[in-house]
Amino acid sequence: MSQTHPEMHERWILGTELLWSFGVGVFIAAALGMILFTALTISVNPPSNVERIDPKVLHLSGEFAEHNLGTTVGADGSVTVRAIATQFMFLPRCIAVPAKRRVTLRFASPDVIHGLLITGTNVNTMVVPGYVAQVHTEFTRTGDLLMPCHEYCGLGHSEMWATVQVLPDDQFKPDRDGRISCAQR
Amino acid sequence: MSDDTRHSEPNVLDQSWRTWSAVAVVGIMLSGILLGALIIPIVQGRGAGLDAYTAICRALGIIPGSPAQPQPSDRTPPTPVSQVIWTPDVLQILARADVRRGHEKVQEVCVSCHGETGVSIAPDFPHLAGQSGAAIYKQLYDYRTGSRSHPQMTDIAKALDESVIADVAAYYAGQPQRNPNPVTLAEAPAAIVQLVELGDPKRNIPPCAACHRAGSGGPIETPVLAEQRQEYIVLQLKLYASGERRNDVYARMRTIAAKLTPAEIDGLAAYYRAGFR
Amino acid sequence: MQPDQPSAADSPFEVADDIDHEALAGVMRVVPLGAAVLAGSAVALLVVGYLLVYILVFLPRGTVG
Amino acid sequence: MRNVERLCLAHFWVAFAAFVVAAVLGTWQMWVRSPLGANVGTPGQYFMSVTAHGVSMAYVLTTFFIMGFGYFVAVTALNRPLPGKAWAWAAFWIALLGVVVTVIPIATGQGSVLFTFYPPLTASAWFYIGLVLVVVGSWIWCVLMIVAMAAWKRDNPGRPVPLAMFATVANAVMWLWTTIGVAVELLFQVIPAALGLVQTIDVGLARTLFSWTLHAIVYFWLIPAYIAFYTMVPRAAGGRLYSDTMGRLTFILFLIYSLPVGMHHLLMDPEHGNATKFIQVLLTAFVSVPTLLTIFTITASLEIAGRLRGGRGLFGWIAALPWDRPMVLATGLGFVMLGFGGFGGLINMGYGMNAMVHNTAWVTAHFHLIFGGSVVIMYFAIAYDIWPRLTGREYASLAPLRLQLWLWFLGMMIMTLPWHWVGLQGQWRRVANFNYADPIIAGWGPWVIVSLAGGAILLISAILFAANLLMLHRNRALALPRPLYALAVHPPQRVPAALNGFGLWNVLVLVLMLAAYGYPIAQFLIEPSPTAIVHRVR
Predict the structure, then answer these.
(1) Which residue has the higher pLDDT, D489 or D269?
(2) Cα-to-chain-centroid distance, residue D477
(3) B238 CB neighbour count, 10 Å cutoff
(4) Residue B91 CB neighbours (<10 A)
(5) Cα D314 vs. chain centroid, distance in angstroms?
(6) Which chain D residues touch C43 with a CB distance below 8 Å?
(7) Averaged pLDDT of chain D
(8) What pLDDT score was predicted for residue B162?
(9) Between the ranges B94-108, B222-236, D94-108, where is the mean pLDDT highest?
(10) % chain A with pLDDT above 70
């Protein structure tokens, strides 16, 4: 590559850039490949449930009326948690869930945008007024976890958090009509 | 310069750019759509026992549910705590209430206990002067539907006809408060000021000001506490704590009142009685 | 420099730098190797880190869907 | 210099004044949320400060710096007077008026909805009207940049547009595209609600329209740093730009791929299904291509400079680089922060993995490292490089400049690395005071104090930066302005029309936006989400 052929030289530069672009392609393929692989094999997705509900009459509705909130175990053994995220508290303030079993968590907001995560787990969702936020997960570790509201919802945002008790199977005893609440410790 | 670039006219060189870039961009977009809207939902749907059409509709958000999980069903009868719903037309009624008509009804019904200008005559009757119109509206509505009960108020509220509730609320909301300058007020105990301004993170109590201070962006029906009767605030907090009063939506006040110590309840009542905002 | 009068120091085309053409040609024989190794290893580190975090930190926290 | 010095200086001083104020607020916030400031400040004050910090850093510092730097590039790179200078001053005063109109409601507590405003929480209408004025000012700047390039191309038929100007116009075109989202949201949803004309708002649509702007706006901020990488760093290091074609391609890829990816900010939102989320995650993967191309091309350019200065062996060129020059030092430090920040972004865009980090301190660390770190450190380097031209003065010594850059780098790393660690443990965002008695939160206390120390270093660096620029005004006169823009190894003689204009790329952007945002927005028009009552913050 003597300097008598600068043009070939420029084509050579673009050649190295093309080679680098090929490396970038491998990089993207690796990143997207992992996402695709886990999505196709063990259904790892961000929460996906577009379910409209009118926030203005939420407290009148059956599913999210005050008495129906908390953890219920269905006849088929499915565990469903229903909770409300409202300005500056979650209801119920303490949620009992089983370990190593599929749990469906459903949240709704009657007023402004909230959001929540459960520390140390993959439960994370925004709670937007007008929609039911639903997350399916399995809790792999037992113990008391923190469930803060992680989206700014007003001046009381910092004090808005709840507790999640992940109970091992032998302590996860629903009562007659399938409801279970936190063990008072 | 070697030969081929000088002879390649700009538009020939350009044509390859146009085709290759268009092909690349559209190709990447189509692969995204193919994977996101078709392959992933169908494969996940098969795992969850859903047919391809349902899985794709769920992934696109046309029907509720995740393409990878069965959707829980729910059959619970509604038993609401308070029937009041804040819809645009309710807010319009409140905004366009007729204060004069409200004043007439007040003189006819309310003045004996709540006073002409909203200054109540007895300790356990609340002051209504300068109270939030939405708050008065909600309480009257809750008395009518039985979500809240009181020996006199339940019958009075039931006797009022629907249209005059907003007018009464607007009349009392319009009555002036003393609005004392906080600087001149006696020094409030630090613990109480802390509870009002910062709340108590340890007991998960949000600051009172986060909802009760005007313009905090809190719930619509939040009442104004400034210059309220001390005994009335103490009574209501105790009713909330015991759960006897249940018309607070999603148990906001029942949860907080249950955590307050009697000393804090008295301190807060005195704080707001003094006229702090 | 009066306003609206382009100064020699500004126009990019006339401002030749003091790089000797021979030295540049000599350097260009080697150049992208160092950059490719440095940038390549950094990017590879990113990808390996991403995959490790995905497998060792994310998945053990339970599936999400 | 055609007398645009005053225009550029006006923009830069507004930008850096907002920057220093916001840096003070940022450090105060770090103190208040740490165990040391347990009972300091009320939530009202804290969220007022967070709003002011966000608006100043994200809207004022960036928009004014980009406009000022754009005028400078249009004049020096195109080597001709700025067309429509009266319009430029008009744009400046409109934008400045917008800043004042926004700051008043923030200062009086009527704007505490943070800089990413969360409807149905609604601030005073003036808060939003001020931001609209700032955007209108920037639109005028966009038109001026496009007109300047068109005029130059008319006078120089067939010649390639100088890379710096080409990139500036790419940034202007992208900004015009992306502000459509927030403009529609503000003008048709949020401002009517703030004025009280409507009592409700469709929150799903509002968040989707804001996400349209939310990602390309960070590339609007980032492109000036990349203009410095491509056109100023090789010259400062004493080398050549490795490939001019790759430079043009990088800015085109930014224009194309930064626009249809905004919904990766909504991965955890309930108003969209997985299909559209996956499409935008896949496109987000391609938005990393221009950055990765830039890392290679600029490192190669620096390698050229290092070897020309006698660097031997595989990495000998690194030590041979003139690290005493601010532009070169800033690039090195900026690339390190870009690496850490880019890694954070890679995890954020991990589709399902976003659930691990969404709205945690990990995300805060990501954008502080990339924007606050590598982009802002390049803003410093650009300012240091062009200040002598604007003021006609010369630096007495480069030492304080290097010290400031090092302090900014150290402060940013010390502040953000702990955030990754506590973010993974679930530390959530925008907290006025933590309950350090809680066993989970107690463990974060020491790390928050370490971040506070980083914040303090950043504050010192911010003040030193303003001091460095102020002191320059009193130094001795500048002898001869150093040439600014780099030459490529092979300066382009002729460039295909596609790499010299944006006609083709605008068409492709339209196609991508229709495909990526068409359905997500149409679903709200077909079946609007149940409306939520507006909650006014006064």
Answers:
(1) D269
(2) 33
(3) 15
(4) 17
(5) 34
(6) 292, 295
(7) 94
(8) 82
(9) D94-108
(10) 95
pLDDT of residue B45: 92
**Lowest model confidence (mean pLDDT) among A131-140, D257-266, D473-482:** D473-482
D480 in contact with C, Cβ within 8 Å: yes
**Six-digit token pair at D308?**
């020309």
Name the residue in chain D with its Cα closest to that of A125: D268
Exposed / middle / buried, residue D291 (Cβ in 10 Å: 0-12, 13-18, 19+): buried
Question: Average pLDDT in the B1-9 region?
Answer: 42
pLDDT band at B111 (very low <50, low <70, confident <90, very high): confident
Q: What pLDDT does A5 receive?
A: 55
Active site residue D240: no
Q: Determine the residue of chain C that is closest to D354 in CA distance.
A: C58
With pLDDT > 90 as the criterion, what percentage of chain D qualifies? 85
Long-range contacts, stretch B70-76, CB < 8 angstroms, 24+ apart: B70/A78, B71/A49, B72/A74, B72/A78, B72/A80, B72/A104, B72/A106, B73/A74, B74/A62, B74/A63, B74/A80, B75/A62, B76/A62, B76/A63, B76/A65, B76/A68
CATH class (in words) of the domain with range D4-536: mainly alpha
DSSP H helices in D77-202: 85-107, 125-155, 163-185, 191-195
Cα separation, B152 vs B156, whole angstroms = 6
Residue A21 to residue D243: CA distance in whole angstroms: 14
State phi, psi for A94 to the nearest 5 degrees: -135, 130
- Report the residue count for chain C: 65
Confidence of residue B204 (pLDDT cuts 50, 70, 90): confident
Amino acid present at B229: R
Predicted model pTM: 0.91
**Most B CBs within 10 Å, among D34, D122, D279, to test the B interface:** D279
Instruction: Tell me the β-bridge partners of A166.
Output: A97, A143
Angle formed at CA D45 by CA D41 and CA D46, multiple of 5 degrees: 80
- The runs of H, that is alpha helices, within D349-438 are 354-357, 361-367, 376-391, 399-424
| Domain spans, chain D | 4-536
How would DSSP label each residue in D143-165?
Answer: HHHHHHHHHHHHHSTTSPPPHHH
Task: Give the CA count within 13 Å in the CB-facing half-sphere of A27.
Answer: 27
Q: Which of A92, A96, A116, A79 is nearest to A185 (CA)?
A: A96
- Close Cβ partners of D471 (under 8 Å, ≥ 6 residues apart): none
pLDDT category at D2 given cuts 50, 70, 90 is low
Peptide bond into D322 cis (omega under 30): no
- Angle (deg, nearest 10), helices D399-424 and D326-348: 10
Nearest to D359 among A21, A54, A151 (CB): A151
* CA dist., res. B16 & res. A174, Å (int): 68
Where does residue D181 rank: exposed (0-12), middle (13-18), buried (19+ CB within 10 A)? buried
| Distance (Å, whole) CA D50 – CA A66 | 34
Is D367 marked active-site?
A: yes
pLDDT confidence of residue D133: 97
Q: Which residue has the tokens 């001019």?
A: D244
Strand ranges, E, within A15-86: 70-73, 79-86
Tokens representing residue D45 in the block: 């004050």
Grouping H, G, I as helix, E, B as strand and the rest as coil, residue D4 is coil
| Count of C-beta atoms within a 10 Å radius of residue D197 | 9
The confidence band for D490, taking pLDDT boundaries of 50, 70 and 90, is confident
Bridge-based pairing of strands A133-138 and A143-148 is unpaired
Average pLDDT estimate for D309-337: 94
State residue A84 phi and psi, 5-degree precision. Answer: -115, 135
Within 8 A of D485 by CB-CB distance, chain C residues are 12, 15
Give phi and psi for D19, each to the nearest 5.
-65, -45
pLDDT for B8 equals: 45
